[in-house]
Write a structure and sequence with these properties.
130 residues, mainly alpha, two-stranded antiparallel sheet, 5 helices, elongated
Length: 130
């Protein structure tokens, strides 16, 4: 059973116009925040929360749950509260990811003959070009 591509495009545009698409994304944000928080907690718990900064995403990411629910209920909240919560989550992600990656590269080893030499003496993978 084939569908008319023009009809699908019209339905998609109508969903955007009426706010249905925005409400769906808000609901997905709320559900995704729950799953992401659980994943972050379990991965940071396996590291025994060795760094106090590991608690930040466990506290900040759940703010997307009420923001997402509010976005489903109110168009105004979807345009104000949800972007603020999202910006906090992105800022926290960058704050945690960029320094960790820099430390990880410094601690992983050194380059020997164009290959990454790990501290344990084993040869790692070649670094990406560029």
């Amino acid at each position: 059973m084939s569908r008319d591509p023009v009809g699908l495009a019209d339905r998609a545009l109508e969903a955007v116009r009426t706010g249905r698409f925005e409400r769906t994304l808000s609901a997905l944000t709320a559900a995704g925040a729950v799953i992401t928080t659980l994943e972050i907690y379990t991965s940071h718990d396996s590291a025994s929360f060795g760094n106090k900064m590991m608690w930040w995403p466990v506290v900040i990411v759940p703010t997307a749950v009420p923001a997402g629910i509010a976005g489903v209920i109110s168009r105004r909240a979807a345009r104000t509260v949800l972007p603020v919560a999202s910006a906090l989550i992105v800022a926290n992600g960058l704050q945690g990811d960029l320094p960790a990656r820099a430390r990880g590269r410094a601690e992983a080893g050194r380059l020997v003959d164009g290959r990454l030499q790990r501290r344990d003496g084993s040869a790692g993978v070649r670094p990406a070009a560029g």
